[in-house]
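ok so I'm stuck.
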Amino acid sequence: MPPVAPSSSILDTLSAIEARRSVKHYEPDFVMPAEHVALLKHAAMLSPTSFNMQNWRFVWVDDADLRQQLKAAAWGQSQVTDASLLVILCADLKAFEKSPERYWREAPEAVQNQIVPMIVKTYQGREQLQRDEAMRSIAIASQTLMLASKALGYDSCPMVGFDPLKVAQLIALPADHVVGLMLTIGKAKVPAQPRSGQLAESEVWIHNRF
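replied:
not stuck anymore, here's the structure
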């Protein structure tokens, strides 16, 4: 059974979207309750992926020495060591060919016979598409984690300010995987700055055609 949080302790979805900000300074001594960690793990794995490949991989880092090394790879950013959780969001580029029948094992046989062959056909030999799909999956999962964190009363920060080759080395990333971003989650020590300037809706929402 999935973990369940008391409904009185969580924000509704739209409130979480409105309240979510990128927070860079965390209470270093705060320890997130294990049940909240379990909720976040469960929520992340509900993120959608193409063909249900579930190609995201979440590297949850709680080793203090490794965090220090990752902090150095992130040019000394304190949130890497101070946040309660540090998650490195990666993806398996070759998930499409690794027993893809697993992703549809609970579907009717007719659906399996239709969908499973399409997975390999879609991605085989198309390296750019494999990478694009990996990054899409990582992006969706990171937003899921950030909104779930905010709903539980925590803050977060998506990070791309790091040396990806060094991070890959430190976490022993398999050769057929890719690092997308790091995500810190915890209790804010310093609130985020006010929003610095949203573009007008008329500039970013296009009706039918540009």
